[in-house]
Write a structure and sequence with these properties.
homodimer, alpha/beta, 7-stranded mixed sheet
């Protein structure tokens, strides 16, 4: 008789953003006349840049002609895109990453969820707390996290690294040695970053204890300060301890287009085993490539026009981030993030949990944010707002919050 | 210290089509002057139909305007596409499948590889032999298949159901009771089919023993005979025992566009647990939706123009199938498939293994096919040719084979 994967049954509630979606839908249905402003899920609102639209149309036309039609993509991605990435994201920043170490995918969410599959189920993971829920949930599903303590909101076999106001939202090296370390900078959800020197400490640590760092750099395009690394491969020794995940969702507005990539350096090992061929095998067996037209859109991100247009798009969102940061500060909220990241992290008003603040904000201001507790126990008492709304809505949301 | 998933290390060689790709690339490099005709991998060659091209351009234009721009798609797919599928693929065939039982994905390969994740690792799988390698390899990676017997070409914990000329390429109910049963009709690689009455026997059996059937109907558009079912839900009782996988790759030429879907009926349980919420949870956590523009392209498949154009496209490939079938029969080969499927399955000439025939065909005719042994031990002595080439190349390939 067929039996299910019991690990799924251990997952408490549903995926954070599904829960929020349901709450908002229920509120909308009850109050159809109210205009809700969504600064919750990290979804972009600006249209695709003209250079990308042109590339998409051109690629669609190629699909209309037998002479230029493209069927299955190469397993690991088209050479034109892998080369553009290697050249611009890595060589351009002094990182030694070659095109054949880059695996094109349909987004960093999938990669961040799937990457754990190539590791043993008895590996112990360490995550920042608060954390992007996918890192933990995908490990729960694989049976790597032990038992759920509902009161604490933690898993028995996960190492949590608290990131709170007290440590400036930067994780400290854990007491217990992990096998896999998930790091995300600029950070989702806190919007914080660490310097290159701070990241070097993690790289040295991982090399010393034989851990693998899974480094999520999905928000690197939002970095504005000099000493913040765009890639973990800016650190010495990262090629022997780190996998890097990247996304086109936030730097190019591809949340509905779907494109990302993962870097697995050829030197990287777990124990005696090289990881590059393992990820290649997973990719080749359980995935079938990103759409040709989408890979051409990705290529356009690196064209001179694309770069110029996207710089403006990022600046547009960062203007929102600044406005939210300054506006909330003015109102007396304790605020962080927003300088090198499109996320603002605020302390909820005294005596209010993060879900209470979620409901309060939805009710009083018709604004949707994300409760910090949804990202982990150390997120309790915090709340995330994103800068991905349009400017007018963002200003209106701030005004409504001011009037609450 | 990080450790890898040892199951990956058990996988022999690389994924079948990667191996073929490498062999062909090496041959091409050694003989750059020879024109190779590829009838190996099941990749299509005809351009996308005009209705689909129009839909893609229109959707791209929507992405260029903030008012119509689309970010993250709904977790399980856009309603417009799920409804079109429910209406056309199911209601139109008398199957009771609702839109909210349909999960949109980036293709049947991924779904067929991922679906095992929601089941316990101690479930025992049964597969046809020969079989699409992804079913088995994804289970190997999950640790469900025991040890590899290189001499036999089999895994110790997999139930193989031989499909050979002797049983007209139709699997028989296994002696040992499986928990999960993978079936694919019209079949890849043999091109064979079973009737609705034959499939009903499998549905009854699965319900009786509590097994779940994973039914891959990726080739249903090629069915030409009346009594061959297009969906397993045409059989009574399938809602309580079957998951169905579908693809847009072959009926609409989406191999490079990437779109598919999986049906999980709400009544379907494994033991006491409903599977629909489990697959929804996996989808929500480890996947982030198919691109908006691609889902609009999928919708166009069901438009009156799309249907008419794709009927012609399928007919085009089936003309190839008929020509290969008849041509090879004339040459004295023993041939099957090709009537309800785009695959021709032939017996290799006496004394030649399927890989020997692969090399022979590549060398003598510069034609690429797929060796039967790559699909399992009962595929030894057989060889697959696909009808997905263009007509002229297919005719030329046949002529070259005739001259060998």
């Amino acid at each position: 008789m067929a039996k299910v994967n019991d690990n799924y049954l251990k997952l408490p509630g549903s995926y954070l953003f599904s829960t929020i979606g349901k709450k908002v839908a229920a509120y909308s249905q009850a109050h159809p006349e109210r205009k809700i402003i969504r600064l919750g899920i990290g979804d972009v609102t600006q249209p695709l840049a003209p250079a990308i639209i042109t590339a998409l149309h051109k690629a669609v036309d190629e699909m209309a002609d037998a002479a230029t039609f493209k069927g299955y993509a190469p397993d690991l991605g088209y050479e034109f895109l892998r080369s553009a990435i290697a050249e611009n994201d890595y060589k351009g920043r002094g990182c030694d990453i070659r095109a054949d170490e880059i695996f094109i995918s349909d987004g960093a969410k999938c990669d961040s969820a799937n990457i754990q599959e190539i590791f043993s189920t008895d590996n112990k993971i360490a995550v920042c707390d608060p954390v992007y829920p996918v890192y933990v949930d995908s490990n729960v599903m694989a049976g790597r996290t032990g038992t759920w303590d509902a009161a604490a909101g933690t898993w028995s076999d996960v190492i949590y690294m608290p990131c709170t106001q007290e440590n400036d939202f930067a994780p400290e090296l854990p007491d217990e040695t992990p096998d896999l370390i998930y790091l995300c900078f600029p950070n989702n959800p806190t919007g914080s970053t660490i310097t290159k020197d701070q990241l070097q400490i993690w790289v040295d640590y991982a090399n010393q204890v034989g851990a693998v760092i899974i480094y999520d750099a999905a928000y690197e395009a939002y970095i504005s300060e000099e000493d913040v690394p765009h890639s973990i491969y800016e650190c010495e020794g990262a090629r022997t301890c780190a996998i890097e995940l990247r996304s086109f969702s936030k730097n190019a507005g591809f949340t509905g287009v779907r494109l990302g990539f993962t870097v697995v350096p050829k030197e990287l090992k777990a124990g005696d085993t090289y990881l590059h061929p393992l990820w290649a095998r997973r990719h080749g067996t359980k995935y079938n490539g990103a759409p040709y037209i989408v890979q051409r859109a990705g290529e356009a991100v690196y064209s001179p026009e694309g770069k110029a247009q996207l710089k403006k798009q990022v600046a547009y969102y960062m203007k929102n981030a600044n406005a939210i940061y300054d506006g909330l500060s003015d109102m007396g909220y304790t605020v962080s993030g927003g300088v090198n990241a499109p996320y603002i992290w605020l302390k909820t008003p005294e005596g209010m949990t993060s879900w209470e603040f979620f409901d309060y904000l939805l009710e009083k201001a018709n604004v949707v944010g994300t409760p910090g507790a949804g990202f982990g126990p150390s997120g309790e008492g915090y709340f995330r707002l994103t800068a991905f709304g349009n400017y007018e809505n963002t200003m209106e949301a701030l005004e409504r919050i001011r009037m609450m």
